[in-house]
Amino acid sequence: MFELHWSPALQLLLAMSVYGIVFEYLGFIVATLLFLLAGFAILGERRPGLMLVAALPLTLGFWLLVEFLGIYLGPGELFLSWVGADYS
Amino acid sequence: MLDGILLGLQTVLTINNLFLVFTGCATGTLIGMLPGLGPISAIALMIPVTYGFDPASGMILLAGVYYGAIFGGSTSSILINAPGVAGTVATAFDGYPLARSGHAGKALATAVYSSFAGGTLATLFLVLAAPILADLSLGILGSGTTAVLLGALIAYGIQPGPRLIVDEPEIFWSVIVSMYFGNVILLILNLPLIPYIARLLTIPRQFLIPMIMFFSLMGVYLVSFNTFDLQMMVVIAAIATMLRLLGFPMAPLLLGFILGGMLEDNLRRAVTLSDGELSFLWDRPTTLVLLILTTLVLLSPLARFFLTRLVRGRGNL
Questions:
Q1: ipTM of the complex
Q2: Best residue in A69, A71, A72, A73 to probe B by mutation, most B CBs within 10 Å?
Q3: Which chain B residue lies closest to A17 (C-alpha atoms)?
Q4: Fewer CB near the terminus (10 Å): N or C of chain B?
Q5: Which residues of B touch A24 (CB under 8 A)?
Q6: Residues B129, B74: Cα–Cα separation, whole Å
Q7: pTM for the full model?
């Protein structure tokens, strides 16, 4: 029988929604890393090293795949202002 | 027809094009395997790569990506019950329970074998029917995916439609012949990988679930590049969770989602053809019989419900 763990389910939905909101500001890499780490933590993972080992290769690998295919995923306004780029 | 096959063989059996069939199948399988990414996203992602190819090679690659992605979708259907296309919904019905009971490898192998058998038969029929059905197979949009493929053709400056097989026989036949080679490649490529793919299930849930969510988010985002769609997805996810909780079966819902769009497209096309009249629905005996059968099937659960109540009511008296 399907039973719902209300609290993590709601937190995960919230995390997805926040990911959608901050995606364009933070950019793909930062937003995805934060989303994955938050997701792992919501589901009870508490080992920071292992969390990074799981999140980093996935994020960078996916970014490289998409980049190789010629799709542009914006680095995010935050990153651009940090390196002083003019994105107007 | 034989000329056509020979022409196709001539084009496909070059090192370049065989390499493209292989690359297409491998990339398609890889992208299709990711939950949430189906053939539409796979082709859309690969189209930029094919700019500058000659049209036949480009279409060979994209066709490889297309059936590779459909096949790859069977993996996510079996392992995590997330079919990405209509074609693999049925795979999830049988495959997911098998995977849950510890026979993921068996289910994955069955998918490989049936994909090979089905693909071979389909290619054979396509070859036999090609002279008659060319307009049906390449002229009419059957789904979002064919729309993307036809868009790629137009980008090469080629007019898709019934005349394609006459005007551009090289493209038509090389794609069909390459599909047969692609089938064999899928078989050889995937059978040795099954044990490794099945072990993906051993990733602990607290890692697996956020990753699946990420792929699903990307599957939505990479089609439209619109973050509003991500919010819509969250709302739909919440509704779907409620439905699961209330015990609604997901299969009819999925089929409704996938077939509903196709139904609307085709109904609109038929209404346009008949100048806005709906009478074509019951004018001809075939459509009338189909309509009556559909109504009967739709009403049968209701009828059964009332019949059982009637019988029980009598029993109590």
A1: 0.89
A2: A69
A3: B231
A4: C
A5: 227
A6: 27
A7: 0.74
